[in-house]
């Protein structure tokens, strides 16, 4: 599935998620999967679920080499 610029997602709870309108946590910016189109939707949803949380956790995080 390819994400187009300006794409909006709706998780099971029905809230609108616009990844272009939220900041990426430092963990995401240092991940080797950052920018990988095959991972982008999963990453966007992971961030949206934890939005507003004090700590951001990601089970698929892989540090850049």
Contiguous runs where pLDDT drops below 50 for at least 5 residues: none
Helix content: 10-25%
Number of helices: 2
Question: Which oligomeric state applies?
Answer: single chain
What do the pLDDT scores average to? 84
Total strand segments: 0
How would you sum up the global shape? globular
Fraction in beta strands: under 5%
Q: Radius of gyration in whole Å, from Cα?
A: 12 Å
Topology pattern, helix = H, strand = E:
HH
Alpha-carbon distance between the termini? 27 Å
SS-based structural class? mainly alpha
Number of domains: 1
Describe this structure as you would to a colleague.
It contains 2 helices and no strands. By secondary structure, it is mostly helical. The relative contact order is 0.24. The termini are far apart. It is 22% helix and 0% strand. The protein has one domain (10-65). The protein has helices at 26-29, 40-49.
Q: What does the secondary structure layout of this molecule look like, with pairings?
A:
Layout: H1 26-29, H2 40-49
Short description:
With 65 residues, the chain is mostly helical. The chain has helices at residues 26-29, 40-49.
Keywords, please?
single chain; about 60 residues; mainly alpha; 2 helices; about 0% strand; globular
